[in-house]
Amino acid sequence: xxxxxxxxxxxxxxxxxxSGGAGxxxxxxxxxxxxxxxxxxxxxxxxxxxxxxxAVHPIPISIVVAQISSVLNDLDVxxxxxxxxxxxxxxxxxxxxxxxxxGIVVLDPVMIAKSGDILLQQSAVDAxxxxxxxxxxxxxxxxxxxxxxxxxxxxxIEDKKPSLQEYAKAMLSLGPKHxxxxxxxxxxxxxxxxxxxxxLNTSIFExxxxxxxxxxxxxxxxxxxxxxxxxxxYTMEKAVEMSHTYLHQAIMNAxxxxxxxxxxxxxxxxxxxxxx
Length: 276
Fold this sequence. Notes:
nine-stranded mixed β-sheet
């Protein structure tokens, strides 16, 4: 299934990662790797590398709103991916700015960097729950993010009591049309991602866990790949299936890159680069 657009366009609304492995940079790389034109709205500038996030500077909200307006007033955007929003005021401003958008919206509730640094103010969680999550087409939390959004204790989900499917379905009560509960933060030999929609139909995507420390930007890459495939007209299930495969290969090829001293990035362009 394809849209009758000569150029599929996706927009990312997220923070900048100065090391290039996550955030806006990962999103745009992923859009390009999956044959989609990418536009961007920067919500914050981070001083970040593979070891840590040393500083976060939020972009003035008026400038964020102006960026969104400029893009949507000109480009024929089919899908939007939302990542790092940082503050409650920014969450509300973004929600207001896209309320008339007729395309598909994917929300990756970015809260913590791979280094463990906080990327979302605690006060912004309530704003996500009330202002944005009920209106998105897909919510893509990992285990720690899902626990925060559901008000659970840490490691509750990893214990799998109740089952992962039940946790994913519980997140539908927050209002999104679909939930993709990602299993990459677990400790099992097989990573299981659970996709569930309002009709409660469930799809499970599994892959063996890859032994590598180079997983910087996996969440951003996964959600932006899904957004790219949705922009091209694929169904939600097919977009997740194709993106699950893309991310798995990007992680498998991550060690062919030598980037940084900590958690290096996944290989967004493994299909076209010839690395040794």
